[in-house]
Specification:
It contains 11 helices and 16 strands. It is an alpha/beta fold and 327 residues long. α8 packs parallel to α9 and α9 runs parallel beside α11. The radius of gyration is 20 Å and the shape is globular.
Length: 327
């Protein structure tokens, strides 16, 4: 990975909500490491670890002891803004969205009520994923695929491959007129990662024709966008449930294309997911883009065009997908 690719500001933004001693130790990390860090990991009775371009680096010089239980509790409280109650809706799902769009994944002991996770206690590990803007990274996709209008697109990749980074730049580019037209973009940002909204302002979105539905459940956001915002395109992250799939299909039936993401490294893995199969069979997406991986966040490896569903043998991949040249 090119050390000049990122700035240190994203790293410094991601650590702002940490307790002072932890924050100061991380601020002392060399700038070339700050610039390429993707994750910051805290584990009880372990040293702090940074993930950089797929490599794990242990923080030794500036913080040379293992994190105690009380320190883990302090980190957790600090990330919650010392108000666990106000963050419970996120904590029960195992994450916290931080200012700047960064996300902290949380592990601990689940508190179960009525068969559902209601909260977490005894926090044992926290992983901060650093949100980054790579401006212009969606340009090739837009120029090649959307010259005759936006089409439904599914962005696929492994964890930390830059799916959110690519979607964020797509929202910015399409809503800023950079390609000769302003598209009305409805951004369904269920976890607050895409837009980095603070006090009503979306700090990660520059485009002037982008409407952000912040922290809405995706099905609700998609339906509200269709009914109230007359969007040219809806963008959302990480398809997971069948309810979300139904909302995407509703958008398609209303004439609004959806650009979304899903965890899948290749076509074989993608077709193991029921929700992906459902959307592909119903022609929800014209294109499927596969990303390279964590060493090149947001970079496209391959794009395939989804053929229209007909009476052909659907078990034969050649009857379902057509590789797009140039990637």
């Amino acid at each position: 990975m090119n050390f000049e690719k990122y700035e240190t500001s994203n790293f410094l933004s991601a650590i702002q909500s940490l307790p002072p001693r932890i924050k100061y130790a991380l601020q002392a990390v060399p700038e070339h490491i700050q610039a390429i860090a993707q994750e910051i990991r805290f584990r009880q009775e372990k040293k702090i670890m940074l993930t950089c371009a797929g490599r794990d680096l242990i923080l030794e010089d500036n913080f040379n002891y293992k994190l105690s239980k009380s320190q883990m509790e302090e980190i957790f409280l600090s990330l919650c803004g010392y108000s666990i109650h106000s963050c419970q809706h996120q904590i029960k799902d195992g994450y916290l969205t931080l200012q700047g769009g960064h996300r902290a994944g949380i592990c601990g002991t689940a508190v179960i009520r009525d068969g559902q996770v209601a909260s977490l206690r005894d926090i044992s590990s926290i992983n901060i994923r650093i949100a980054r803007n790579i401006k212009g990274i969606s340009g090739e996709l837009i120029n090649r695929m959307y010259h005759n209008g936006i089409k439904g697109t599914l962005v696929c990749g492994a964890p930390s491959s830059g799916k959110t980074t690519l979607l964020r730049d797509l929202a910015n580019t399409l809503s800023s007129g950079k390609n000769g037209k302003y598209y009305k973009v409805a951004l369904a940002d269920e976890r607050g990662e895409l837009s980095a909204v603070k006090d009503g302002s979306a700090f990660a979105i520059d485009g002037i024709t982008c409407d952000v539905l912040n922290l809405y459940p995706k099905p609700v956001a998609i339906m509200q966008a269709i009914r109230c915002l007359s969007p040219d395109v809806i963008i959302c992250d990480e398809i997971g449930t069948l309810d979300e799939c139904e909302a995407i299909l509703q958008g398609m039936n209303s004439g609004v294309p959806v650009i979304a993401s899903i965890h899948a490294h290749d076509i074989a893995e993608l077709l193991q997911k029921p929700q992906a199969n459902m959307l592909i069979e119903r022609n929800a997406f014209k294109y499927i883009a596969f990303l390279v991986g964590r060493d090149s966040p947001g970079k496209i490896k391959e794009i395939v065009e989804v053929k229209k569903n007909d009476k052909a043998d659907r078990s034969n991949l050649d009857n379902r997908f057509l590789r797009v040249d140039g990637f």
